[in-house]
Specification:
The protein is α+β, with helices and mostly antiparallel strands. The protein has eleven helices and 23 strands. The strands form eight sheets. A five-stranded mixed beta sheet has the order 8-7-6-15-18.
Length: 542
């Protein structure tokens, strides 16, 4: 996917927003019509560059190559990479001999400049990982869990696990090799010490992620680099909140009745009438929703809110947030659980909001199978943007994650992938979902009596149904039950798919089956990608 250039030399891209409160979902468009949010467009191009830096690895990539592969002008690439270097996200990786002229400087991603937490909540186990921007696991914790112990107990268990993991694995951000970061660079206000204030317009799960863009600075009001979602464009100048060219307001003691004092906000607003609700520069307090993110539609933040000073995770400035994956069904957009199979008491519980309030960082919630599928797609499984695959997860339950064109397919109501509850035996044994003869019930019963061949055959029948309905390119198997006997499941599922292909006379052979990489922590790693993937414009993580 290429970038979009502007004739005035600034870089924009293909994401658009109809206006404040529209939902801030990523989309595609020309970026030239009325209503285009140039900050979001610029973030699209930044994401393209970041992703190429990530995939280039330690060897790095030159600006010329970045321009060629993104379709951006060299001037636009130079501006983006200069900003990334100031923010500590990119650095030099040496030089490459040129066929003419001076050697080309190579740039690479700085993996330790950002981190994400990923948690897999299984019915009887919690697994948490801490990953860097490359997706490399730099910390891991695992403990017993009873998903039926009650919401308060589970939320507190998650909080303790991720706080301990962050305390063990995170250190202060590394110094920026290319010189100190300026709070105002290229017309974009920055919050000092926040390496990941990357254009501010990054989105996750329908709310403004704001990726550490000053939201965690104790005693300072949020500076979200233009991604505040303020409906009055006059309040947004030079890519950020406030009015450019005016001196910053530094602890001047001005107050608006009912609102917090203006303290070191750097917004550059000389008129105290513009300073409302903690110095956000919004004249209408109604525009300030959920902890001062400045989003006119409260649904865009849905309880995630800014970082809360004094919380354990607030001491980790490189942390983007937390991704949580668990059995469904659930509402991914709102982070609300439905009747989790076997645990109907979770129905209607707002897990995302509860964890965000407890931890003070952005949280994204998704089904375990979708998270794992996203991680696999970001890792290049399934043929990239042109391929498709089904990830079948067999552990304490059975579900599927579906990927088409490099993105996770969640469905209109985020309910796609309830693979385990397709009925294949009308008078079969009862399932915990309330139906009879579900693939999950049959498969788990076979596993319980030690008949792995039968379990694989049942799983293969479901996989064959998916292959016939969706014409997918690949089947990937995962989950702790599969991990305990991988060869048995690959052979058994593959045999059913082979039989189907022979019956149908397909000339290309059966859909291939293999074990998903990542092992038993694949879901937790995928949960972390719910935060990381949008940063690189990959898939549809949040």
């Amino acid at each position: 996917m290429g970038g979009v250039n502007r004739t005035n030399g600034g870089s924009t891209g293909a994401g658009v927003r109809a206006g404040a409160g529209s939902g801030a979902r990523s989309g595609t468009g020309t970026g030239t019509g009325a209503g285009a949010n140039l900050l979001a467009l610029r973030s699209h191009n930044t994401a393209l560059v970041l992703d190429l830096l990530r995939t280039a690895g330690a060897e790095g990539i030159s600006r010329l190559e970045l321009a060629e592969r993104t379709g951006l002008t060299p001037q636009a690439v130079s501006k983006i990479t200069a900003r990334l270097r100031r923010e500590g996200l990119a650095t030099e990786a040496g030089r490459r001999a040129s066929t003419g002229g001076k050697p080309r400087t190579l740039l690479r991603l700085v993996p330790e400049a950002g981190h994400a937490l990923g948690v897999h909540l299984d019915r009887d186990e919690l697994r948490a990982v801490l990953v860097d921007l490359d997706g490399t696991v730099v910390g891991e914790r695992r403990s017993a869990l009873d998903l039926g112990a009650g919401a308060e107990t589970v939320v507190e268990g998650v909080a303790r696990a991720v706080e301990a993991l962050a305390a063990e694995g995170l250190r202060p951000p590394p110094p920026v090799a290319d010189g100190p970061r300026s709070p105002v660079a290229d017309g974009e206000p920055r919050a000092p010490g926040r390496a990941l204030a990357a254009d501010g317009g990054l989105r996750a799960s329908g709310y403004t992620l704001a990726v550490n863009a000053g939201l965690g600075a104790s005693g300072r009001v949020p500076v979200a680099d233009g991604g505040l979602g303020v409906s009055d464009r006059a309040l947004v100048s030079d890519g950020g909140p406030g009015v450019s060219g005016r001196a910053p307001v530094v602890d001047d003691g001005r107050r608006v009745p009912g609102h917090a004092p203006v303290m070191d906000d750097g917004l550059g607003v000389s008129d105290p009438a513009l300073v409302a609700d903690g110095g956000l520069g919004v004249s209408d307090p109604a525009l300030v929703a959920d902890g001062g993110l400045g989003v006119s539609d409260p649904a865009l933040v849905a309880g995630s809110g800014p970082r809360v000073p004094g919380r354990v995770l607030d001491a980790a400035p490189t942390l983007l947030g937390l991704g949580v994956a668990l059995p469904g069904p659930l509402d991914h957009v709102r982070g609300v659980l439905h009747r989790v199979t076997g645990f109907p008491e979770w129905d209607g519980f707002p897990l995302r909001d509860a964890l965000a309030r407890r931890l003070g960082v952005p949280v994204v919630v998704d089904k375990d199978t979708n998270a794992a599928a996203l991680g696999l797609a970001v890792g290049g499984e399934g043929g990239g943007e042109d391929g498709s695959f089904a990830y079948l997860h067999l552990g304490t339950g059975l579900g599927a994650g579906l990927v088409f064109g490099g993105g996770v397919h969640r469905g209109a109501r985020t309910g796609a992938g309830e693979f385990g509850h397709q009925v294949v035996q009308l008078d079969g044994p009862p399932c915990t979902c309330g139906a009879r003869g579900c693939i999950e019930a049959l498969c788990l019963a076979a596993v319980a009596r030690g008949d792995l061949a039968e379990a694989a055959r049942v799983l293969g029948a479901g996989a064959a149904n998916l292959a016939g309905l969706l014409d997918i390119d690949l089947v990937l198997l995962g989950g702790r039950t599969v991990a305990a006997a991988p060869e048995a499941f690959v052979h058994g599922v593959g045999a059913v798919l082979d039989d189907r292909a022979r019956r149908e006379g397909g000339h290309d052979g059966a859909v291939p089956v293999r074990i998903a990489p990542g092992g038993t922590r694949g879901v937790a790693e995928g949960a972390a990608q719910l935060l990381l993937a949008p940063l690189f414009g990959r898939g549809n993580g949040g």
